[in-house]
Amino acid sequence: MARSATPARLKTVASCLAELGVVSAIAALALGLLLAPASAQQGETYRITLVHVPASWLSMLIYVVMALCAVFTLVSRKRSPVLLARALAPTGAGMAALSLGTGALWGRTTWGAWWAWDARVTSELILLLFFMGFIALMAVIREARLAGRVGGFWLLLGALNIPIIHFSVQWWPGLHQGASIVLGKPAPMSP
Question: How far apart are CA 146 and CA 22, in angstroms?
């Protein structure tokens, strides 16, 4: 018969995974920011995108996972999916903030401005506000079932922003670079 996981074991596993995540993140940053070659067109500034793009994609992926948790919570009325969404929210908010921060750094050197009300930039800011709104809702609503339902509807509303972020550069071309990878078409960037 298998032993059930004790809270102490779960805490140890979680701690090990957190440490592995920090070490992996530091290694990835070192590789991207220190060892990757500079771009022929953008020079050293290009390296910012090696943090910016993954942070942007992660913020959207985390939100999609949270929205799926909301669907499961609303359909099954179980509490575990909303607990997962609550656990993911700070990381997602951090990724959205990192995306906006690195985008501002890159934008300053490339566009000459820290901020532009570009469609992609603005929709990423809206995503950050949805993350923060969910965190706030979970903090102020004390009754777990109500928090799960209200939070679930909030997440589903915010999920409408994900395709807007993704397609914004096609729908409203502006300062932000267009899509670098489009399915079914060769990549416009050099290998």
Answer: 34
Distance CA 119, CA 3 (A): 52
Token pair listed for 20: 């592995």
CA gap 96, 54 in Å, rounded = 10
Closest CA relative to residue 124, chosen from 56, 49, 51, 48: 56
Phi and psi dihedrals of 61, rounded to 5? -60, -45
pLDDT in tens, 87-145: 999 999 999 999 999 888 888 887 787 877 788 889 999 999 999 999 999 999 888 88
Rounded CA-CA distance 77/163 in Å is 27
Cα–Cα distance for residue pair 49/57, rounded to 1 Å: 12
Residue type, 88: L
Rounded Cα distance between 77 and 96, Å, is 29
Instruction: State which amino acid sits at residue 169.
Output: V
